[in-house]
Every structure is written in structure tokens, then in C-alpha cells.
Amino acid sequence: MGNYKVSTTETRGRCLKATTAFQPGDTIGLFTNPIFSIPSSGQLSSQCSHCLRSDCELRLCTGCRAVSYCNVNCQRGAWKPMASGGGGHKHECPVLKLARERGGGRVLPTPTRALVAVMVNGKVAEERIKELEGNVNGFRQDARGWEDIRLQAYMALSYSKIAGPDNTDKYAEMLCKILTNTFNAYDPDVSESSVFLEPTLAMANHSCIPNATVQIEGREALLIAERPIAADEEIFISYINYSNSLKHRRVDLAKYHFTCVCPRCANDLDVYTVCKNYPSLTANEYSLVSAASLQSPAINRAIPESLERTYSNLQDDYKEFETSLGGPSKDTLKRGFAIVKPLVQANLWAMLPMPAFLNECVAYWKVSSEYPEDSIVALPLSCLIASRVIPATSPLPWSTNRLRTALFLCNTLYNAAYSVTDVKAKLDRLCIRVKLDDKRRHTIANAHEMSMNYLVAGMILHYKGHLHPESFTIHAANQLMTGFRASRGFENLDTLPEGCDSSGRMAAVRSWDEDKLRGRPWEAFWKASVVDVVEALAEVGARFIVQELGK
């Protein structure tokens, strides 16, 4: 194990501990031999069932016609038994075929498929899962839930043709272990969804202020330090979305049958309080926001005292609103704004459900044509998310969420530069429309979307060592950089923003990577070319939301 070890604690039982010290961003471990790593049932037709890729042509397994593969190598890898590091599909295939035939073409639920994968691969898989904690007593206390688990176990037994009078409870308990220890991986960039179980990684305990995070890519998982970790210190990850309210975090953790007592829960800390006390905020010198803005966010502290009492209710109200959405429209967004308005008034853009609401706004204004400048609104809204939402919940600039958001901003900048006519004029009309101050308006007028796109993509690639090398984010950023160079974008750059000590933007952008690596002064250039522009556009986005939806 090298960098980590399985240990025990008096209160939490088994755990993972570091055997050496780690700094934020360090890789603690790479886990390459999961018990299973399979697409969620709803993704079986769109993801390879071995490498889990979706950006490729897939072919159905000719045996079960339930799973798909992207090439012969993946099919062979999946066919190999689990004991040899494969996916064990050779034993699973007839079971999935029978289930599909008896179920009228429907596939088994994801947990049942995961249980089947363990059952049919014999002692090797069962031995690996045997030592995991399953919280079986907790599951049994919920009579209806326990019966559902037993039903899924019975279904798996029936299709697997494993006989025995006592086997239902045995495999129901095994399913409890699967439900308790499996990682659910979702990549919104490519709509990939999968479940992953690796027994050593599953030993890591939960905290709503974790010191490590897990990145899952195909059949591998990276464990990366989020905070400084001392040798022999316990490694904590988060099982849930820790930016939820305390009430909703407790609901999400209920299936694990414990109550979290981390500082965030014990003191009911909001995302801004946790963020400003983060130990490594200075790492944001090379990011879309400044460390100062994270340490002293521009929020209205006169409102949150009363807001805390209704924060959970806001999430409940918005969840009910989301279920009624038939598609983005201005009327539905106005209804959503009425729910989140207290958060907007307090400048609490990072508190849920604001992020979900802003994503709906971006989706709507990407296709809206009510006004000529609507075609550019997605850019300031993307900057609002990139600077005032995601950094507060993910304070490190190389975190997965931060880099995904930066990639989305890159794509929005690219579209603005190449697909929107009269970009500058439309942005200026938008600034006038929301009554933006002259200083920010000048910053936006002096910006250059093409160079920003290149520089932000370069920032993403600067942090590629903190992501899995096969990450979609890294792949897409590389494509953007290649496209920029192929389009001869360097030759079309105009002068630098005021205050930057360089003869021209082209020279500065062209030498950016080299200068950054050599440690030359670059802060003024980065601030003027990227950070100030993102902040100014974010203000446009914030004002636009209030003006358009708060009427």
C-alpha cells in the first residue's frame, strides 16, 4: 500500500491512515483492481461496460445483448475472470441474458447487477467483499427497505440459479455491503454514470470537511489530498454532497447508518465559513478567482441569521420546483428565482439550490433569442458560476469541479469568439442594459475572448497532474489548445489590457507557458487578462439575473 494503510479507530472502526505526509494536490494512491466498475443500468447502451467510455462506437455483447463494448480489447478484458483482473463477464453473461429474456428486454437494476457480478465470480469476489462493513442491522430496522433488499437478492439468485434455503439472507447482507461501500461516479461533461467498488478504498471514513477526494476514471480511482495530511493521520473522504444543508446531509447519510460529527455538522457551518478557513487558499494565485475573494467573500451578513432558519426549506421548495420543470422557459425561471431570491439578496451564490438554478438559466439563454444580445448571455452566467459559485464549495484550483467549470467557460468563450457575431457590441449593450459601472465596462471592452480561451485552457493543463491522465477535462482542454493554434489564433490577437508590461498580447500569450514555468512576473498579466474580466462578467451575470427574472 505504500502511502496508506488500513487501521482501526475506537469510534469509527476500520479506517485508512496515511503512512507519510501529504500536501494538497498530492496523489495518495491509485486503485486499479476494483471488485466491479460497471455503468449504471440506464447507461448500458451508451457506455462501454469495461472501460466505461461513451465517446465511441459501441457494439452489443452477442451473448446477453445487455452490455456493450467499444472494441475487442475491452470485450476480452471484460470476459476474463475477476481473479485475473478482468470483469468476469464470462460468468455474468448467461445471467444477464436470462434476466433480459424474462424481463421483456429490461435490464436488472444497478445494485442487482453488481450483486450478480460478485455472486457468479465465486470465492475470489466474495472473499474481497466479505471484510467490508455492511450496516446490516441498520438496514434491517427499516422493514420495507429490508424486504426490498431481500427481493433484489432473491432476483439475483433466481437468475443465477444458485440454490440453497439460506442464500437469500446471505446475499441480502452482501447487497448491504455493496450499497454501503460502492462509489457512485457521475461525469456531467459526457453524461457518464457508473458504480465502483474497491475494498481498500472503501475503508476510508466520511467527513463533510474531507482531507481527501476520490476521482474515478473507468476502472481506476485516484485518492488525492485536499488538505495537508500528516503521517499516521486518518484519511477522510465525503460520501455525499457536503455543500447541502445540515438537514439534507443527514438525510443523505441515513443509508450509512451513522451521524456525522465533523466540525461542519457540529457547528452547522455554511460553505463560506468553511471556505474562508481553508488552509491552502493561497494556491488560488493561478486560478479564475483571487485568494482574497475567497477569504473575504462579498456576502451580506445582515441576512443569513434569519436565512439559516429557511435555508433547508429553500432546498425543499426548489426540489419540488425542479420536478415540475417541463423544459427551460422564462416563466419557469421566474418561478425558480422567487424561491432563491433570499440567497440572491444576500449574495450567497454558492449555497444550494443556487447552482442548480444558475445551470437552468445557462441552458435557457443558450437558445433564447428574445433580444439580440441574448446570444452572449451564457458567457457572463458562466463567469458567475466560475467565480462566485464553484470556488466557495471547491476551494482548491485543481479540484475536479473547478477544472470542469473552467472547461465549460473555455467552451463558452470559444463559442463567443467564433459563433457570435458582433461580440463586443452585444457585450457592451448588455453592460448598458444592466447598468454596469464604467470601470468594469471598460475591463470587458478591453478583453479578448480568444486569448482568454487559450489562457484558461492552459491553466487547466497546468493542473493536469492532479487529475487522472484519461480525464475528459484534460482531453478537451488539449483539443481546445490544438484548435487555437491550428486556427492561427496567435496572429489575430490585439494589444494587451492596460497596465500589462508587454509589447503586445500576441507575444505575451505566445510566451505564457514558458514565462510561467520560468517563474517570471506574470501576476499582472493573468489578473488583467483573465481574473478581472471574469469578475466583471460575473457582475453582469448577477445583475442580469435580478433584472430579467426579478420583475
Describe this structure in words.
It is globular and about 75 Å long. With 551 residues, the protein is mainly alpha-helical. 50% of the residues lie in helices and 9% in strands. The model is unreliable at 493-503 (pLDDT under 50). It has 2 domains: 38-183, no CATH class; 271-549, no CATH class. The strands form 5 sheets. Strands 3-11-10 form a 3-stranded antiparallel beta sheet, with no helix packed on it. Strands 4-8-7 form a 3-stranded antiparallel beta sheet, covered by helices on one side. The protein has a two-stranded antiparallel ribbon with strand order 1-2.
Topology:
Layout (H helix, E strand, L loop, with lengths): L3 E6 L3 E6 L8 E5 L4 E4 L19 E2 L7 E2 L2 H8 L9 H14 L7 H10 L2 H9 L5 H6 L1 H18 L6 H15 L1 E5 L4 E6 L7 E2 L5 E6 L2 E6 L10 E2 L8 H8 L9 H4 L4 H6 L14 H5 L8 H20 L6 H16 L8 H12 L12 H11 L1 H4 L6 H20 L3 H11 L4 H8 L3 H14 L9 H15 L18 H6 L1 H7 L4 H27 L2
Parallel strand pairs: 9-12
Antiparallel strand pairs: 1-2, 3-11, 4-8, 5-6, 7-8, 10-11
Helix pairs in contact: 3-6, 3-7, 6-7, 12-13, 13-14, 13-24, 14-15, 15-17, 15-24, 17-20, 17-21, 19-24, 20-21
Keywords: Metal-binding, Methyltransferase, Transferase, Zinc, Zinc-finger
Protein name: Histone-lysine N-methyltransferase SMYD3
GO molecular function, one term: zinc ion binding
